[in-house]
Amino acid sequence: MYQYTDFDRQFVHSRAAQYRDQLERNLAGQLSDDDFRPLRLQNGWYVQRYAPMLRVAVPYGELASSQLRVLARIAREYDQPSEQVFQKAQSTQAGFGTHKLPTGYGHFTTRQNVQFNWIALDKSADVMDLLASVNMHGIQTSGNCIRNITSDERAGIAVDEIADPRPFCEILRQWSTLHPEFTFLPRKFKIAVSGAREDRAATAWHDVGLHVQRDRSGAVGFKVLVGGGMGRTPVIASIIREFLPWHQILNYLEAVVRVYNRWGRRDNMYKARIKILVKAEGRRFTDEVETEYQQIVTVDGAPHTITQDELDRVTASFVPPTLDKSAPAAGVLASSWSKNDRTEYTRWLKQNVAPHKNPDLRAVTLSFKRLGYAPGDATADQLETAAELADYFSAGEARVTHDQNLLLPWVLSEQLPELWRAARKAGFARSNVRLLTDMIACPGGDFCALANARSIPIAEAITERYQDMDELHDLGEIDLHISGCINSCGHHHSGHIGILGVDKDGREWYQVSLGGSDGSTLSGSSVAGKVIGPSFSASEVADVVEALLETYKSQRLAGETFIGAVRRIGLPPFRDAANRVRHETGNADEAHNIRLKTADALTD
Ligand code: HEM
Ligand code: SF4
After folding, report:
1. Average pLDDT, integer, range 133-141
2. Which of 448, 492, 597, 600 to mutate to test the pocket of ligand 2 (most atoms within 8 A of CB)?
3. For residue 465, is pLDDT > 50?
4. Which of 115, 276, 280, 395 could form a disulfide with 107 if both were Cys (CB 3.0 to 4.6 A apart)?
5. Spatial CB neighbours of 491, under 8 Å, sequence gap ≥ 6
6. Which residues line ligand 1 (CB under 6 A)?
7. pTM of the complete model beyond 0.70
8. Which protein residue's CA is at the shortest distance from atom 15 of ligand 1?
9. Is residue 600 predicted with pLDDT exceeding 90?
10. Domain 440-585 annotated CATH 3.30.413.10
C-alpha cells in the first residue's frame, strides 16, 4: 500500500485542527452558517435530509485494516442519530417497502469512497481527528474541484495489467490536491485511471479517463478520454489522444483542466460539466487542449514532466507485501465439508475469486450485497470483521470496489477455504459477485435531499426475490444499477438493467432502461441504456425485473448472457413483457412524496 509521507500526515492533521476552530466558531455564533458552509463542504460535510453526510476520500480505493477499524469506530460511536432525529426521519417512511432506516454503518460508494449519513455536526471535528489519526480526510470530496482519483480495484495485481496504475493515481493525487488553479472549477471534476486491458474503472464515464496502452516500441502511455458523464445528459467520453507518453500526463491534464476552467459554462450549473463543453465544441476543444499543451511543454518548459526517478520513488511505496505461507493445507479443511458446502465453495471460487499476477495468490471479493442491508452498507461490526480478515488473509489491505464491495488483494490460494469459512461466518461470502443481486445503488430518498424516489427498498425487493442461488447463477452475470434521481450516482445509465427514480406528481416512480454498459469486457463498449417506456410504481419494479429476466430465459441461446441477448434480440420483447406487468397490476398506488430539496445537495 502507499505509505503517506510526513507532509501528508501533517497536512491532514493541520486541516483537522483548522476545521475544529471553524466549527467551534460556528457553534459559538461567531461564524455564520453561510460562512461556515463552504468550509465544511471543503472537508466533505454535506447537510442532507436528517444530518450531515460525510464523504471520506479513499484514494484509488485502498484501505489499510487500521483505517477500516477507525471507520468502524466512527460508525459505532458517531453514525448514531439522537432519538428525536431518528423518530423524525423514520416518520417520513411510508408506503412501499417501509423499513427501519439503517444507522451505525459506513457506505462504500461507486467512486471507492466511504460515506456516513447520521453524524451530528457538533461531533464533526472529533470525527476529523479520528480520520486524521490514520491519514484520512474528506478534502476535495465535495465542491467544484478535482475529486478523489479512482482506479481498478485489481490495480497492481490483475493478470491482464499492462502497467500498475496506482503510482500514476498517487502522482495525480499529489498534483490535484489543493492545486491552486483548479480549486474553483465550473463544476466538479472526476478522473479514473485503468492500467489493464479490461477497463474496470468505467473510464469512459468520467470527466477524464486514462486507459493505459503500449505503443509499437512497447513504451507505456495512456489513451486520454474526456467528457464522459451521466446525469440528465449521459455522454460517453471522447478520445482526444490515442497515446500520451506516461511522463506527460500531468502536463497534458493541466492543459485539459485549464481549457475547461477557462471555457466551461459558469452561467448555468446544469451545463457546467466538461462533457457539455466537449460536446458543444467538438474538435475545437481538442485543438484548444493541444495548443495549451504545446504552450506548457515548449514555452513553460514542461514543469510537471514526471521523471523516471519520481515514478520509481512513488512505485516503491507499492511493493507487494511479504506473505506468511504457514497456512493450513486446503485438503484438510475441505475433507470435512458437506456436499452443499462444496457446491457453495465452488461457486464462490468462480464468482468472488479472481486470478492474480502472482500465481500463488488470489484476489477475493467480500460481498456486501445481502438481504437486510442496503447495497454497499457495512455496520461497525462488519467493518471490524473486514479489518480482521484483511489482517489475517491479505497483509492488512482491503480495497473498495466500484461495485460497492470490498476486495482482499493478497490472499494465498492455500488459504482460500479458510477465508471462505471465515467470510461466510461474517456474512460476506455470498457467491453473487457480478450477478443480479450484486447491484449498485445510491442512498436515494432514504437519505439524499435530491432524491425523487428511494433506492434502498427497490434494491431490497429485488434482492429478496432472488435469494435462490441456483436461479441467480443460472441467470448469469448482470449489472443492475439503481439511482434515486437523474444525478445518476447509482450509475443507472450504465446498467444492463437501469432503474431511475423519477418525479411524477410529487410521487415516487421508476423508469427502467436496458442495454447500458460500463465498458467492462462482459458489457462491451460503454453505452447508455435505453428507456423501455413510461415509469412504473415502486411495487411493480421487482415484477418488471422478473419479467425482463423471464424473457431472457425464454429467448437466450446456449451460453448467452443477459446483455448479449438484449443486444441480439433488441428491446421490443423485453419492453412488451415489462408493460404486461403494468397492465396486470394497474400501477398499485404506494407512491408517496419523499421530496425535500435543500441547496446543499446541489454542491455535490
Ligand atoms: C446522499 C448524498 C449524495 C448527494 C447529495 C449526491 C449528489 C450528487 C449530484 C448532485 C451529482 C451530479 C453532479 C453533476 O452532474 O454535476 C452526483 C453525481 C455522482 N454521484 Fe452522488 N450524491 C450523493 C451520494 C453518492 C453516492 C453514495 C454515490 C455512490 C454510490 C455517489 C456517486 C456519484 C457518482 C459516481 C456521480 C457521477 C455521475 C456522473 O457520471 O455524472 N453519490 N451526486
Ligand atoms: S442519484 Fe440522486 S438520489 Fe441518488 S444519491 Fe445521487 S443525488 Fe441522491
Report:
1. 96
2. 448
3. yes
4. 115
5. 110, 202, 205, 230, 440, 481, 483, 498, 518
6. 46, 48, 53, 107, 109-111, 115, 187-188, 205, 229-231, 273, 442-443, 447-448, 450, 487-489, 601, 604
7. yes
8. 231
9. no
10. yes
